[in-house]
Design brief:
Number of helices: 4
Structural class: mainly alpha
Oligomer: single chain
Order of helices and strands: HHHH
Shape: elongated
Number of strands: 0
Length: about 90
């Protein structure tokens, strides 16, 4: 008999936390949360300064911040290059 994910409660709990069972607005906020976090991670990986608090924000925290005023302009952010990698010398 082959093991099933259902046999491992941690996996089931983790997987179910990734499923958004809410309505359209809930799914949209989840999509925006993931897109914004991915953009922030990409910027950080490329040497830009990104506040750790922005990267650590959870989906429920994002929804609490986003829901009262869901305006696309609120998703914008600014950052700066923390280290200049253009002058690499070998």
């Amino acid at each position: 008999m082959e093991p099933s994910f259902d046999d491992v409660p941690e996996v089931v709990g983790w997987m179910s936390s990734m499923v958004d069972r809410g309505g359209r607005a809930s799914q949209e906020s989840h999509r925006l949360f993931l897109a914004r976090r991915t953009a922030l991670e990409m910027l950080r990986d490329r040497g830009y300064s990104v506040p750790e608090s922005e990267l650590a924000r959870t989906l429920p925290e994002f929804r609490a911040w986003w829901a009262p005023e869901p305006e696309i302009e609120r998703l914008t952010f600014s950052t700066f290059l923390a280290s200049d990698h253009s002058d690499k010398r070998n």
